[in-house]
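Title: Comparing notes on inverse folding

I've been comparing how different people in this forum approach sequence design from structure. To keep things fair, I'm posting one structure and asking everyone to reply with a full sequence. Here's the target:
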């Protein structure tokens, strides 16, 4: 189960179903579309919660049949066989607060896909098959508190991709293929509390990377290719309590110096469980 930090009641609502989302698809419960699943009595759709996970879905056809879409706050579509998501798929759910598309073979997310979801505070996009994200894809989601992009094949991030997410507290970018980060990537994330960058291919970090994140509490940069860590990397993070740096080829002199600081953990942080 993915490591999840809870920052709001609506984000917590989805957590009880994440363990279920990790199960494999049962071939006998595999359906082409949401409509097919509904006609077979599968899935859960009542009140403010909709769940169609681990059903082998290849299409979201039938999602438009959900009654009272304005009441829906949580939508779980994880663990299916969705390769693409048409723009407009979620436009009927203006009050959606939590959306889980994780563990699908999605290769591309189109700009505008989340534009009508202005009330989102939890967006789960881990274990996808992306390489990049379109610029501005999250610009309308200014209420986001948690964004999970772990294990999604990302090799690069567009300039300003997170600039509008001023309320974001948890950002998870672990297990991707990132080799470098722009110095101002997190410039506008003044409420950021937890950042995960584990398991990438980062060789260096810009010294000013976290300069604007004064509320930052936990940083995970373990399992990268870091030879050193800039001395002033965390100079402007008074709330910082823990930095995971394990499984990096840090030069001996720098590692010995860091080990004297209780802020740093040379263990690899738990990413499952």
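Reply #1:
Here's my take.
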């Amino acid at each position: 189960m993915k490591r999840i930090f809870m920052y709001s009641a609506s984000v917590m609502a989805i957590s009880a179903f994440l363990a279920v989302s990790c199960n494999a698809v049962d071939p006998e419960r595999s359906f082409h579309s949401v409509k097919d699943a509904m006609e077979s009595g599968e899935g859960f759709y009542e009140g403010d919660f909709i769940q169609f996970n681990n059903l082998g879905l290849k299409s979201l056809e039938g999602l438009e049949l959900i009654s009272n879409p304005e009441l829906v706050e949580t939508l779980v579509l994880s663990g299916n066989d969705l390769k693409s998501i048409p723009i407009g798929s979620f436009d009927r759910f203006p009050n959606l607060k939590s959306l889980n598309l994780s563990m699908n073979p999605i290769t591309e997310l189109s700009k505008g896909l989340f534009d009508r979801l202005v009330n989102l505070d939890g967006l789960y996009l881990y274990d996808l098959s992306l390489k990049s994200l379109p610029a501005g894809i999250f610009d309308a989601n200014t209420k986001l508190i948690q964004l999970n992009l772990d294990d999604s094949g990302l090799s690069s991030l567009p300039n300003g991709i997170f600039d509008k997410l001023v309320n974001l507290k948890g950002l998870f970018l672990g297990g991707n293929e990132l080799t470098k980060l722009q110095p101002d990537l997190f410039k506008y994330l003044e409420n950021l509390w937890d950042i995960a960058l584990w398991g990438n291919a980062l060789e260096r970090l810009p010294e000013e990377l976290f300069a604007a994140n004064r509320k930052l509490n936990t940083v995970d940069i373990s399992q990268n290719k870091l030879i050193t860590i800039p001395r002033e990397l965390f100079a402007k993070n008074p709330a910082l309590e823990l930095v995971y740096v394990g499984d990096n080829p840090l030069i001996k002199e720098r590692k010995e110096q860091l080990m004297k600081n209780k802020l740093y953990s040379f263990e690899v942080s738990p990413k499952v469980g």
